[in-house]
Amino acid sequence: MRWNRAERLWAAGLLVLAIAAPFFLYPVFLEQALCMALFACAFNLLVGYVGLLSFGHAAFLGSAAYVTAYTVKAWGLPPELGIVAGVAVAALMGLVFGWLAIRRQGIYFAMITLALAQMVYFFAVEAPFTGGEDGIQAVPRGHLFGLFDLDHPLTMYYFVLAVFLFGFAVIVRAIDSPFGQVIKAIRENEPRAISLGYRAEHYKLLVFVLSAALAGLAGSTKALVFQFAALTDVDWTTSGEVVLMTLLGGIGTVLGPVAGAFIVVAMQNYLAQTASWVTVIEGVIFVACVLAFRRGIVGVIAPFVTGRRASADIPAQRPEVDAAPLPPETAKETPPVG
Amino acid sequence: MKTRIPAACAALAAALLLAVGAQAQIKKDAVKIGVLADMSSLYADLGGPGSVVAANMAVKDFGGKVNGKKIEVVSADHQNKPDVGASIARQWFDRDGVDMITDLTTSSVALAVQEVAREKNKVLMITGAASSDLTGKNCAPTSIHYAYDTTALANGTGAAVVKAGGKTWFFITADYAFGHALQKDTAAVVTANGGKVLGSVNVPLNTADFSSYLLQAQASKAQIIGLANAGGDTINSIKQAAEFGIVKGGQKLAGLLLFVTDVHSLGLKTAQGLNLTESFYWDQDAKTRAWSKRFFAIAKKEPTMTQAGVYSAVMHYLQAVKATNSVNGPKVVAYLRGRPINDFMIRHGHLQADGSLVHDMYLYEVKKPSESKDPWDLYNLVATIPGAQAFKRPRGNECPLVKG
Amino acid sequence: MLAHLPAMPPAPLFFAQLLVGLINGAFYAMLSLGLAVIFGLLNIINFTHGAQYMLGAFCAWFLLTRFGIGYWPALVIAPIAVGIVGVAIERLFLRRIARLDHLYGLLLTFGLALAIEGIFRQEYGSSGLPYSIPPELEGATNLGFMFLPIYRAWVIAISALVCGATWFVIERTRLGATLRAATENPALVRAFGIDVPRLVTLTYGAGAGLAAFAGVLAAPIYQVSPLMGSGIITVVFAVVVIGGMGSILGAIISGFALGLIEGLTKVFYPEASNTVIFVIMVIVLLIKPAGLFGRAS
Asked: If you count DSSP H runs as helices and E runs as strands, how many of each does chain B have, helices first?
């Protein structure tokens, strides 16, 4: 893809900002935000480009966190292998869940992913290796490739930043590849894509697995940041949170989820003393976004800053376009949101 | 093109600005005490806001300053989630300059925070959590288990119930670090005294409906149903046991950890006759009454041992800071370890190398409604258990800091 | 603790657990029924359903503690009050997004649920507030194999009655016929001079009222807690998927049946009791993607 001059300048600025940030801000906060940003980007890949809204993405985040925490702590794996193990498990789960869930679309898909994630949650409560309510505590960060001591705050930060940039690059690459063009075609008009010879189900499943694996990457990294894996990571409120971050930032925009994640994490940090107000504010943001702000922050601001007109394919807008009365049969299986 | 870098930059910049405000470095010109507790859930009554009251009372009584530095109290709600507790503690130590954390109700949270404190060499004075693992296999050099632990509860209530003839036991256990430790310690005491454990069932924390677990306990035909849970969970299980006719059927309940606030909300009609072990009861003697009266004036309820423990712990911590002219964790703890600890709440206290504060505990019995003169007149003293007996570990000490 | 897996439990425990399961099933049935009714006409998954259930319980609690109004009046007042709140939600929010993708309805109601729950958590903490059993239903009867608290027996009876009545109204009356017709073809029903938007509003209100009714019933058993709704709603979603979306009978039958199955699991393998419903959901999805009672689409 080609960026115009303004965009290139902004991107460079952003990178400089990211590199300089730990000297001004609490690194753990930044690391948390980057992990959640990657999580949201992974989620967005599914909702924004395939139009499948998963309400159970915490299952991948949390399972990978558990696997990494356990393998690093109990088996003494180095951090990089711990992360690989976490991502592998998340991808495998993505394959199974995806295979089950893509049988249905729209709200059904959302409910099925939610229910599957709840199954994972209760498994985590009961399984012996997760530590139940206690979680897996005091996970050692270890030395990356036997060289870099991750207990050093700055080393850890740049490691997390590198992981984030890697995940982000994978997503951008996937979207701009021919593969990305096909999934967008499927989102826009599935029957037509199928009639052109694309096996839509395969493509959807592949994106689901990729999304799950990247969510797992975020979870594995998070486990090392906090040296902890706990039930919060597999809780359905976490699944809700990632929807919120993406919706707030802008569904189907590349950088929207990042902005949404930073805002939500900053808010949670601000209001750490009063967790229940965080919930209220998150609820209100949800309602406001749905009622009046469906394109999200990035979707709204972008045209002004880049000098580019908003492209017509912001997925969140689409349903308004084709909101003409649908025959009841198709109305039951709703078209995807994104 | 779909990429909207600039827009995101603007949004990110806004988020970062927000964050800068929140993350601004705090100058280290105060001694800071953190009260990390369950502020809103099933343990909020026994610690929570009342612990903040107690901590503030201690700071005020100390004069508000130590060695010319202001003393500040901060507080937060850990929601009984260990990850939440650990990340608040990390932030407090790293960024906000907190020197000591107290209360720490909920053992899973306390264990998690203890790992952070170990890494940062900071002092913990745990008055809320109970698990004996805090000073056992997970012990940390700068962590003090202040008010009571599951060992003391087992040696108190557990032993008393077995000796009174309750030989066969079934446990209803809160499914996390605390419940497991309490069950293990009590089971060890029960078997040591010639009793037998017939079975147990794990129940998730903060459960509303105990019916199916109570039915299992009933079917076990054990004489004693040991409730290895706390706070709201204990209240619910005792109430529902009455509903399912368990006590009428001849089985007895043993509430292994009951606080004065639990008994107050259960009411004497339901709770009468229960044995319980505490390190503090407001109506114990003139000293406890004098302090509790001041607490009641602010909090509008009588203090629990956790809350009285917070006051006592903060006072002793500040004295140690004053004497050593330092907030250095190991120094402060070394000072406290060197001398006896005695006040209205802790009697005959001395701090062990594993972090447990050994002191007298008390075995009480809940009064009959006819014996009670006012809503908070709840206990009769049965026995005082000397520290050495109360804190004698039935399973041996697994703490790597102590030899053997 | 796998070590405690019983080989064959004593018969009394077996039946007792089944009964407890049936009580849980009663709540699953009532809540999934409300979801099904709302889904039928509005085509949205009402995530606020859990919050409305919680509001019902809180309403009963307020009535008792603030105004001294007891259980029996609360059983009528709370559903009406929450029903009115539901009407307001439909008018203020849901109507405005009715023409959008139905997923927005899910997100909107999820947001509302978060906000409502957060406010109550802020005010009342997240532990339960006690609500006592009405004196008329105190005590227990000895069934031989167990002490059945009378209140719990009442819950089973009244919920079966309410479910049955709802089914009757929708499937066997003229009003129900209109409703079903409006689900199938709103434009045509409108042509017959029926005010469809009002029908939609009232249906949503009725669904919310049904949830509140369940909430009042639950208050003496589960206590009144801000989190009671979010605890049960995800299970109810699975129940709905199993029963088949929009099927009234499916919601009722699978609600009760899954409660029973959950009870059975508690006898044989308690560790799996929380997962069993989700496992069944997976199996049903594999065999019958539209749900047991749903029409294939």
From this structure: 15, 15
Helices (H), A102-199: 106-126, 153-176, 178-188, 190-195
d(CA A42, CA A35): 11
Are residues B379 and B283 in contact, defined by beta-carbon separation less than 8 angstroms?
A: yes
Q: Looking at this predicted complex, what is its ipTM?
A: 0.85
- Say yes or no: B244 contacts chain C, CB-CB below 8 A: yes
> Is residue B153 within 8 Å of residue B277, measured between CB atoms?
yes
The token pair that represents B102 in the structure block: 């107290």
Contact call for C114 and A279, based on CB within 8 A:
yes
pTM: predicted TM-score of the whole model, two decimal places? 0.87
Q: How far apart are CA A249 and CA A268, in angstroms?
A: 16
Gap from A332 CA to chain B (nearest CA, Å): 31
Report the distance separating Cα B70 and Cα B21, nearest Å: 23
Angle between helices A236-249 and C102-124 (to 10 degrees): 120
Interface of B with A in 97-156 (CB under 8 A): 108, 111-112, 115
Task: Please check whether residue A241 touches C, CB under 8 A.
Answer: no
What distances in angstroms separate CA A316 from CA A190, A191, A283, A303, A313, one per listed residue?
A: 17, 20, 19, 16, 8
Both tokens of B109, joined, read 């949270």
Q: pLDDT per residue over B239-294, tens digit each?
A: 889 888 888 888 999 999 999 999 998 889 889 999 999 999 999 999 999 999 99
Q: Which residues contact B107 (CB under 8 A, 6 or more apart)?
A: B129, B130, B131, B133, B134, B176, B177, B178, B181
pLDDT at A314: 37
- What pLDDT, on the 0 to 100 scale, is given for residue A69? 96
Give me the phi and psi of B361, to 5 degrees please. -120, 165
Q: Which residues of B touch A301 (CB under 8 A)?
A: 4, 6-7, 10-11
